[in-house]
Specification:
Layout lengths: L1 H12 L7 E8 H22 L24 E2 L5 H13 L5 H11 L6 H11 L21 H4 L2 H5 L5 H12 L6 H16 L5 H9 L7 H15 L4 H12 L8 H15 L3 H11 L3 H16 L6 H4 L5 E3 L9 E3 H18 L3 E5 L2 E9 L21
Helix pairs in contact: 1-8, 2-14, 2-15, 2-17, 3-4, 8-9, 9-10, 9-15, 10-11, 11-12, 11-13, 12-13, 13-14, 13-15, 14-15
């Protein structure tokens, strides 16, 4: 097994041929910041709003719901944002070439409570001296093959890769393997592409189609997302009909905590939300399953697309520009969300430059010149003992 995992480690670091630039494009520094700020606001708002609906609607979707500002004390840390918060700190401490050994030390220093499922087992393995990616292999981590950690801990990689989806995929692939495997890693590719491309594309349906192209056609994840796209086309005004089709086909094998079921549910919220920030978050909660994760991911993407300056104040004002860290040891107890966005942009600038881009002055304002990339078809880890993946109907 160790020989195989060593090979896997290399694949994680370089899962595809080097990204071929498509074209040069520009992104004003102020716009980049506004979109990253919007992404973190959207993640926090979706997470805080969605928490009461987490695992509440499983067999059936929820009733129609409306906005209520129940998070009036600002955002607090939760695993839908706080593992990214740790990774942001790790990138600042160790650079964008962060190694698996450094990841394990960061986890042991800062992630010591309030983690569950595959994340919990990976953390236990680190205490036993096991390093990633073995911590995310089904032979050691029995939840790794299905858990949706490949989605809800990975949005950061798209934020630091504007217009560079292939680089976002490489980051996501590497760090998803810390805790998950196989189909669950594909979530990092899919949502990484959505976020990276969202800086330059505002049409949600177009984004979903682009991200779908990064999924291997034989995967259950590809089948589930493609089904949702088709059901949305066939039932454009009836998300409940689409949700029933999703549940009937996938829920028997892919459980309520799985990447496949929740990735498809999040896609459904995005498509039926039609680019509307509030409607998308409400749909993510009503569709159900691990709803706070899906509301956070979808809210973050819509926040990125619109930018902080264009988000509804009734959703952002209750956050009070405050992120209260109540879960992650050795990190600030409280930080302004606007400052977190500045930190993410600083890392993003390093990634832009590492991929051939640069910063330049344009009429007194800074802008980024970015070498755009195309996404690549993600590699699907080989099926191994303990990996229960299956494509329903195939």
């Amino acid at each position: 097994m160790r020989t195989f995992l060593a090979a896997l480690g290399l694949a994680v670091l370089a899962p595809a041929a080097p990204a071929q630039p498509v074209e040069k494009t520009t992104l004003p520094a102020a716009v980049y910041y506004d979109k990253v700020h919007g992404a973190w606001l959207g993640e926090c708002a979706g997470n805080m709003f969605g928490l009461p609906y987490e695992m509440k609607f499983i067999e059936e979707p929820g009733p129609d719901i409306e906005f209520r500002p129940d998070y009036a004390d600002g955002a607090r840390s939760d695993d839908d944002t706080d593992i990214e918060y740790v990774y942001l700190h790790a990138l600042e401490e160790h650079g964008i070439g962060l190694t698996y050994a450094q990841v394990a030390e960061e986890w042991k220093s800062h992630i010591n409570r309030r983690v569950w499922v595959a994340n919990k087992r990976a953390r236990e393995l680190m205490d036993e001296g096991v390093l990633p990616p073995e911590t995310g292999h089904p032979s050691r981590n029995e939840k790794a093959w299905f858990n949706l950690s490949g989605q809800f801990t990975q949005e950061l990689w798209g934020m630091i890769c504007p217009g560079m989806p292939a680089t976002a995929q490489r980051f996501g692939d590497k760090f998803a393997h810390v805790v998950v495997y196989g189909e669950s890693v594909l979530a990092a590719h899919y949502f990484g592409v959505l976020y990276a491309e969202g800086f330059f594309e505002s049409d949600v349906a177009a984004l979903v189609n682009t991200a779908l192209s990064a999924l291997p056609p034989e995967s259950a994840f590809h089948h589930a997302v493609a089904d949702v796209v088709r059901w949305h086309r066939e039932h454009p005004g009836d998300w409940r009909a689409a949700r029933k089709l999703l549940h009937d086909k996938y829920a028997a094998h892919w459980n309520k905590n799985s990447s496949v079921l929740n990735g498809a549910a999040c896609t459904m919220a995005l498509l039926y939300g039609g680019g509307d920030f509030e409607r998308t978050i409400l749909l993510a909660c009503m569709i159900g399953y691990d709803a706070d994760c899906n509301a956070a991911t979808a809210g973050g993407l819509l926040g990125l697309i619109h930018g902080a300056s264009r988000l509804p104040e009734k959703w952002t004002a209750p956050l009070k520009d405050t992120y209260r860290n109540v879960t992650r040891d050795g990190l600030p107890d409280q930080e302004r969300i606007s400052d977190i966005a500045h930190r993410i942009v600083a890392i993003g600038e390093q990634v832009i430059e590492a991929n051939g881009g640069y910063v330049r002055d344009r009429d007194g304002d800074e802008e980024y010149v970015i070498l755009r990339q195309r996404p690549f078809v993600a590699p699907l880890d080989p099926k191994v003992e303990g990996d229960g993946r299956r494509v329903p109907g195939a």
